[in-house]
Amino acid sequence: MCLADQKYPRTWREMSFDSKLFLALFACLVGLFAAGNRLTVNAELSIAALAAAGVISVSSRRRRRLDWRWPGTNRRGVLRAVGAAAVMFFATHPTFPIFQPDFLPWYLAGTEIAVFNILESLRVVQAPEVDFLKLCGTTSPARDEEPQAACVMEAVWRRATRAIFFITSYAVMFEFLVFFYLSGVYFRDGSPRPTLTQTEQLSTGGSVVYITPVQKHLLDQLETWASICIPSIIGATVFLHFIVGVKLLPNTPTLREIRNRKTNSDQVHGTS
């Protein structure tokens, strides 16, 4: 499927039933996070497990009733699923204690987001309801012949620019995840007071520990790169999508498309 032609729901009505179930489960986990220490770890695990089982049961029954069929996946989907799994590893790695009421819902929510992204990449779930309904019934699902043809018609330089942009974006995201991961590890293993080897301060949430100069230098470098690269990626997104016209944001028109729509609208009003 051509990345520029992918469509995502913009309203609640356009969202698939599975997406709505995902949001309901996410809201449940956010509620557990808000409850904090008022619930035990066992209570949080029990509530989350019951909610997840309910979501899976309701979704499975609906799929059987509508005769949903898995359309298969492709290499891009597998690569996206692997990337989502890597993000889940970094985001849910126990840099902070998992089995505490304050932190457990955060890990559960991160895992849920990653699992949904993996399933969507493998085309097990669909974000828009219209895409889900296309896979229901007795008709064999189409396998993206038309989107592929659209990709062939697109200029090569646009596809190459988009590919370079997303590779760079994923590299920046990976760099930030490494910074986040190492910050947690160094904070967890840091010393509460200065030692002969751990002389540099590392503060998180008002708490201070001491780490080695090499660790501090690495974190400073990663933080500097992230502070430069993340705004640059945001700026490049705006410039490439709206000014250059390389489609990066699904369902968002470029400036050229907006001008064309206005021109067409003026012509229609002029002839009427």
How far apart, in Å, are the first and last alpha carbons? 38 Å
The biggest beta sheet reads:
2 strands, antiparallel
Q: What helical percentage do the residues reach? A: 55-70%
- Low-pLDDT stretches are 139-152
SS-based class: mainly alpha
Give the spatial strand order of the biggest sheet.
Answer: 1-2
**Coarse morphology:** globular
What proportion strand?
A: under 5%
**Sequence of secondary-structure elements:** HHHHHHHEEHH
Mean pLDDT: 84
Using DSSP, what is the number of strands?
2
Q: Taking Cα atoms only, what radius of gyration do you get, to the nearest Å?
A: 23 Å
Notes on the structure:
This protein is mostly helical. It folds into two domains: 1-144, no CATH class; 155-267. Helix content is 66%, strand content 4%. The chain is built from nine helices and two strands; from the N terminus they run αααααααββαα. The protein has helices at residues 17-35, 41-66, 75-92, 104-121, 129-134, 145-153, 156-189, 213-244, 255-271, and strands at residues 200-204, 207-211. It has a two-stranded antiparallel sheet. α7 (156-189) packs antiparallel against α8 (213-244). The longest helix is centred in the middle third of the chain and has 34 residues, at 156-189. The protein is globular, with a radius of gyration of 23 Å. The model is unreliable at 139-152 (pLDDT under 50).
